[in-house]
């Protein structure tokens, strides 16, 4: 029997049993829909963050504390550590600062607990505007002469208080009023969006002799990895301890990729449970179909059809059930992913992107077709082995 005849027989049975076929593929549709939407969003976020980190922070080397020291407090850096970083060959400028949490009051006594970033104004402006290429939506950058000024993230301006915070408004931070002189453009980072930047020396929140992080700007991007290694060695010699971490954009991108990769695979594994249910449904449908078509099988064998031909007819039919469910599930999965991207963008989470590629679509369709084939193989094999005489007698 030719391939087109096998496909014809398989397709005809699906059409004749439309309701049964439809109910069968629902499980496949749900499973594929969940897998496509989760893979699309998971890898979309991963790729967006990777691209953002490697493109914007390619010239940056960051140094952070590993965590708590022997005294139970956060390990801090000092002026000597800053000098060590500044002296590393290839470093153009260094920004240092600390992060604290504090209640921030706006008009009418409205308070919110936000992250406060204490910095040296000139260093902050250099690193953020020149190295990281951040831009202000409105206002200006901090100046060295600023003592009671602040720059706020986009989320602080528009998503924190009942009324929007604008340039010129004042915020009460640790019993001191700060005038908003600049608002950062939306950068897709919720942490940055909810941060307020103030001069370190202006607030009792900070000790201007101790810092939680250092960020170095390296002009030659090809030197970044070498600078990071030299920085690590020199700081170890200075501190006599390995109580810090040195990060480059590539390091961070790889860590993000690994974390999101594992998380996405976990979600896909959970979603695959419904796909297993769909596979069982196909197997059950093929078993019932073989029982209902025993006489058809007997007739085909009586006119010379071989066991392999009968097997192919039912296996292809099972594969088509999986493929149709895969097509419908893929379409629905893409729609769900795009809706999630749209809603996330409207809520200020611009980093949530739907990752849709031809490779993803073709892989999922091939996968669903194979799932259908495997699900229908064993019932089909038992049908192919039926005795034609018994089937024609109705035994």
UniProtKB/TrEMBL annotation:
One Pfam family, short name: MacB_PCD
Membrane topology, record value: Multi-pass membrane protein
All copies of domain ABC3 transporter permease C-terminal, residue ranges: 270-388
Subcellular locations according to the entry: Cell membrane
Record carries keyword DNA damage: no
Transmembrane segments: 21-45, 259-285, 318-340, 360-378
Organism the protein comes from: Methanococcus voltae (strain ATCC BAA-1334 / A3)
Membership in a protein family: Belongs to the ABC-4 integral membrane protein family.
Keywords: Cell membrane, Membrane, Transmembrane, Transmembrane helix
Gene Ontology CC annotations of this record: plasma membrane
Protein name according to UniProt: ABC3 transporter permease protein domain-containing protein
